[in-house]
Amino acid sequence: MNLVRWDPYRELEEMTNRLNRLFGRATATADGNEMMVRADWTPSVDISETDEEFQIKAELPGVKKEDVKVTLENGILTLQGERKQEREDKDLKFHRIERSYGQFVRSFTLPDLVDDAKVKAEYKDGVLNLRLPKSEKAKPKAIEVKVA
């Protein structure tokens, strides 16, 4: 387990990112510089890690597979796409619209130990599942040391 020094600015940045998601804006990091990217909505993601790989699962309900684009460039993984609004019937009177539609963008800076050439993506039941294998040099190895 790695110890992480508490950084009040990082905590403030995370809170800002949550507020941006709430109000329909997404943040993205490119080459270490932060920039704001306007998005209509932001899908939720889970990021996990094993000894073998990182895994990112993004919830994209109502998004067609062909409307999702995943790119990996200079150590930055970007998910983007669009959830299109259903055709509206002009005789329909809406009482409430809570679902978000339109474009989305999420970007993640990947650690150096990800093997870019082996990244895989699968889309099923509105969930985008990305598998990011670690390079061989990054996998932990256990060796037995003989005591003389």
TrEMBL record:
Listed name of the protein: Hsp20/alpha crystallin family protein
Q: Which PROSITE patterns match?
A: SHSP
- Gene3D superfamilies per UniProt: 2.60.40.790
The SHSP domain is annotated at: 36-148
Organism's domain of life? Bacteria
**What family does the entry list?**
Belongs to the small heat shock protein (HSP20) family.
